[in-house]
Amino acid sequence: MELKLHVPDMACSACRDTITAAIHAIDPAATVQADLQTKGLEIHTTAAEATIRQAIQRAGYTVQEG
Fold this sequence. Notes:
Layout: E1 2-6, H1 13-26, E2 31-35, E3 40-44, H2 49-58, E4 64-65
Antiparallel strand pairs: 1-3, 1-4, 2-3
């Protein structure tokens, strides 16, 4: 499944790395592409969207539709 999400408080490479680690904790095979300029995430995963959103939120970030 491909998810496109917007994370308005993703500001730097450390934020990107934290979010990526949170997603990989749920689905180690997921691919995550983050654009710090647009604050967009493109995620290819087999996990449910709600699970991915919760992982990002638990890491301390806001999630919106991409």
